[in-house]
Amino acid sequence: MKVLFAAAAAAGLLAASPTFAQGFGQETYLNVGYTSFALDQVRGQDVSNADFDLGTVTGRFGSKLNTNFGLEAELAVGVQDKEASLGATTITSKLNYEAAAFAVGYLPVTTRTELFARVGVGLIEIESEVTPSTGDASGGGSQTLFGLGVGVQHFFGGVNGIRADYTRYTGEERGADADALGISYVRRF
């Protein structure tokens, strides 16, 4: 159901984007793809060695204000939950959403390929349940994240392209750090 909702929202944004694009900068773009969030800790438990990845469908809407600078908004909806056992403890987590805004710097490599770096802030909501042998503990809630990332995008001629990116998120609370790897389709207007 989440995948259907995310796909419908992305299709609606794609259809409406040319109208929005008229009021923004030099180039406006929309991208939709898959992002894997690798968590370092869940509710105080170190999961960095447990391959603890939560998958999302991610959408971004951005505008390049000039050749080298732009802004983008990001929204991710969780589609892949994770359960892992660490000794006698079982951890189950799901990412409900992540929403962020970024300032983006671009470095054109060719007329079709560009590197980028981005810095931003946002919110993330993850629900977790830790089941030790002596009882259950669960929790969740949203918290502020700070993100710093890099990536590359390549256009296949005109307006269609592909983007690969890595972002390191640091949470306001201890143990809320995550690495995000994503790949997405890009459409520019």
Low-confidence stretches: 1-23
Spatial ordering of strands, largest sheet:
1-4-5-7-8-10-11-12
Q: Can you tell me the overall shape?
A: elongated
Task: Give the integer mean of the pLDDT values.
Answer: 81
Predict the CATH topology.
Porin
Beta-strand segment tally: 12
> Number of DSSP helices?
1
Intertermini distance = 29 Å
Percent of sequence in beta strands: over 45%
What would you report as the Rg, rounded to the nearest angstrom?
Answer: 18 Å
List the helices and strands and how they pair.
Layout lengths: L1 H20 L5 E13 L1 E2 L2 E2 L6 E12 L4 E12 L1 E5 L2 E20 L4 E19 L5 E3 L2 E14 L4 E12 L6 E11 L1
Antiparallel strand pairs: 1-4, 1-12, 2-3, 4-5, 5-7, 6-7, 7-8, 8-9, 8-10, 10-11, 11-12
Describe what this molecule looks like in 3D.
The two termini are 29 Å apart. The chain has a single domain, classed as Porin (Beta Barrel), CATH 2.40.160.20. It is mainly beta and 189 residues long. The longest helix is centred in the first third of the chain and has 20 residues. The chain contains one helix and twelve strands, in the order αββββββββββββ. The strands form two sheets. Strands 1-4-5-7-8-10-11-12 form an eight-stranded antiparallel β-barrel.
